[in-house]
Structures are given as C-alpha cells and as structure tokens.
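Renewal narrative, Specific Aim 1. Our central claim is that a sequence can be written position by position from structural information alone. The example that follows is taken directly from our test logs and has not been curated for this report. It begins with the structure tokens describing the chain, in the order in which they were read.
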C-alpha cells in the first residue's frame, strides 16, 4: 500500500501527517507502523504521526500517535500543523475547529511569515484537579508535591491541558539527566496514564527555559500543551 504523507513541524515539534479524510482505512493500516515511521535512523523520523480525519463534533478530527505508538489526547503544535496543512489545501476560514480526543479545539488564523502559517490555538483552561489530570499525587490538587526520582526527591505540579503534565521548577536545566529523569517520571505509578514532563527554569519577565520529556516520544524541542502547563 502506498501512503502519501506530509512532513511538518511547529516550534521544532515535527510530525508525519497522513490525510485520511477520503481514505479512513489508512488509520488502521498505518497505526501499527508508527514506531518504524518515526524512527530517525531507519524511518522518516518524527515525534509522532498526525492523522487527519472527518470529525463528528467539528469538520475535521486530528488523532496523534506518539513515536512509541501510543495515542495522545491532543497536541497544540500538532493542531497548528493541521491548520497549516488545511490552509495549503485552500481552507480560508479565519477560524478552524478541529476535533481531538480531548474535545473540539479552535484555531485562529494569524497570517503568514514566508512559508510558515501562523495559528493561535485556544488551549482551554488548565485543569489542576488531581483526579482529572490524572494523578494520585496530592489530594484535591497536586501542587508542588514531592516525588521520588532517581536523583532524589523533586516537587511537581500536575496539570491537565487535555493531556497530563508534571511540571518541576529547577535552577538549571542544562545539567539535568533528562534521559534518566524523563522516563522515571513519565512512567511513575502516580500517573496511571503516564505523563508529559516539563523542567522549567524561570528567567524573569514571565519567561521560562524549559526542557520537555513527552509521553511516548522522549525529549522533544517543544511542546505546546507543555508550555501552557
């Protein structure tokens, strides 16, 4: 089977995009191949594969399978890539609504810079209720909760942006052993659906330097929902 695809990226988050609107069978056909497709040595190479389908609650639906084949509820940068793809196909609406597993999301067209499309994504309100993240840390909310990690104990605040995040504020991101810490937190029993992990260093003036370990993808250059979390 020949499967046409587009390689796309937003803020360094890169994806393979497969348009399934006229061929919905492509999702089931490609899904088992996602880890091989995302392999950066033997495959195309990507953080995940975006599937564009017809939606039930919006004109279009985006589904994202991470590099390990697991499915994410939503992805901010992936949505921006979908918006750009639709724009290139001739969609000229100022606002585009795309369905995700976390619900419909609104994309607002902001213009172009060279070959780049600019979209603003309404990520919704962050959810701090621990049971909805979900996490077993804390009681009602999980804010600055201690968690045992390989390097000792770190404090995490748990947030859902439609997908789970654990955020720790640190003094230095460069020295973090992310390949050790990332998977330890991602797969910690306190997170029943695993979690994305962000280590953030405040820079002042509302700016942060962040290193991201994405659930199912490992370290990535950016994460839209992680920035919101």
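The sequence written for that structure reads:
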């Amino acid at each position: 089977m020949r499967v046409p695809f587009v390689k796309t990226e937003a803020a360094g988050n890169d994806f393979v995009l497969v348009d399934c609107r006229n061929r919905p069978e492509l999702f089931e056909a490609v899904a088992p191949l996602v880890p091989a497709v995302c392999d950066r040595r033997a495959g195309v190479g990507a953080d995940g594969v975006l599937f564009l389908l017809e939606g039930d609650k919006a004109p279009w639906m985006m589904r994202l399978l991470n590099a390990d084949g697991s499915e994410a509820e939503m992805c901010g940068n992936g949505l921006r890539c979908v918006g750009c793809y639709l724009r290139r196909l001739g969609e000229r609406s100022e606002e585009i609504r795309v369905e995700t597993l976390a619900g419909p999301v609104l994309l607002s067209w902001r213009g172009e810079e060279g070959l780049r499309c600019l979209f603003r994504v309404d990520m919704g309100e962050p959810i701090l209720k621990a049971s909805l993240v979900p996490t077993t840390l804390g009681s009602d909310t999980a804010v600055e909760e201690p968690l045992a990690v390989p390097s000792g104990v770190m404090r995490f605040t748990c947030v859902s942006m439609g997908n789970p995040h654990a955020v720790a504020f640190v003094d230095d991101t460069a020295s973090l052993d992310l390949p050790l810490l990332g998977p330890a937190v991602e797969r910690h029993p306190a997170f029943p659906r695993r979690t994305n992990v962000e280590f953030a260093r405040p820079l002042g003036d509302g700016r942060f330097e962040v290193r991201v370990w994405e659930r199912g993808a490992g370290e990535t250059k950016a994460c839209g929902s992680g920035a919101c979390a």
